[in-house]
Amino acid sequence: MFITIREFKDKEELKNYLLSIGITEAGVKILSSKVSKFNIEISNIDTRAANILKQDAISVGGDCAVPRKASIFEKGTCTVLLMVTERSLFRLVDKLKLQPFKLKELSVKLKEAVENYQKDEFIISYNGKELKLRKPAIMGILNVTPDSFSDGGKFSTVDRALKHCEEMLESGADIIDVGGESTRPGSDPVPIEEELRRTIPVIEEIRKKLGNEFFISIDTYKSEVAKKALEAGADIVNDISGFHFDKNMAVLVAEKGCPAIVMHIKGTPKDMQKNPYYENVIREILLYFEKTLKEAEKKGVKREQLIIDPGIGFGKRLEDNLCILRRLSEFKTLGLPILIGTSRKSFIGTITGESDPKKRLEGTLASVYASVIRGAKIVRVHDVKETKKFLDTLWAIEEAYC
Q1: Catalytic sites, residue numbers
Q2: SS3 of the chain
Q3: pLDDT single digits (tens) 22-42
């Protein structure tokens, strides 16, 4: 069984969803009028279990949308929508512990998913520093590459990189993300020696001149580069491959005990945009993370070290990127901080018609809003000053007491 927590913007969207999972018109009319704190989608559930789940949900004051195939006792599996309040959910969990057809296992998953979903504060720590993630943090992008899609070559010397880093910190960046290899669509890998030559002197100089009061992440999927960067003063490993391109990366992160960002990517930077396709993009990425997190834990990585990034633009079509942003809150069921990197990306250009990445600020800020309002705790951006002002204003409005 697969669980995710859905949010619906209005009754019409809920109605359409219920119809899509096989609920009858009469059932949709009744169920769409109910208000629940949690709408929990459970897929691949035995139809016999679905009927028991519905009866138990009703008995504690909730409900469960069950498709007709389950109602007429057709054998097989189906997708249901459990509709409950927090109080009724935990009463339901106790009931399910006594039920057959894997409902006992489901009770554990439901409790864990809802507890994770409600987590709103995280702390990342390393090298004696802490970054509290109640409000969204800003990760400033420092590409020391000659060929990045937006700012390639602009900060490829140590002096220019240092100056830009200082500017981003003064503008409100909490993390500086140093990258020595472009991972734009179609890009080729960079040799380890070249990536080290680009990144390590920059990190060393940043620490020497600007101190140790802020976080530095190294944007690499190579464990050797990550190791040297951590030794030079970096605090976080930002791996676009989610530990999959270099099997030693998870081992390194476990040994160092440092925070790490695991991203979803379909393919490699060279081929990721060659006709990517998903049956269900949210489900596939969530399953990817579940598998990746388990594999990392087997290698000694502690779950609390990790940050997840669904990988906007990395093996995604326009509709996939929009769906991820629209349903980002579903990733909260993993119970980890969410990072989003939409800054200046091509999907914004597709929507706005703006071909120059540097002129995509408005679209970037719109995507930042969509992300943080749905639970993102770190936003990775080029335009730190503008993003900081935007988020400060947004948070003042959201936290106004009136």
Answers
A1: 345, 380
A2: CEEEEECCCCHHHHHHHHHHCCCCHHHHHHHCCCCCCEEEEEEEEEHHHHHHHHHHHHHCCCEEECCHHHHCCCCCEEEEEEEECHHHHHHHHHHHCCCCCCHHHHHHHHHHHHHHHCCCCCEEEECCEEEECCCCEEEEEEECCCCCCCCCCCCCCHHHHHHHHHHHHHHCCCEEEEECCCCCCCCCCCCHHHHHHHHHHHHHHHHHHHCCCCEEEEECCCHHHHHHHHHHCCCEEEECCCCCCCCHHHHHHHHHCCCEEEECCCCCCCCCCCCCCCCCHHHHHHHHHHHHHHHHHHCCCCHHHEEEECCCCCCCCHHHHHHHHHCHHHHHHHCCCEEECCCCCHHHHHHHCCCCHHHCHHHHHHHHHHHHCCCCCEEEECCHHHHHHHHHHHHHHHCCCC
A3: 999 999 999 988 878 999 999
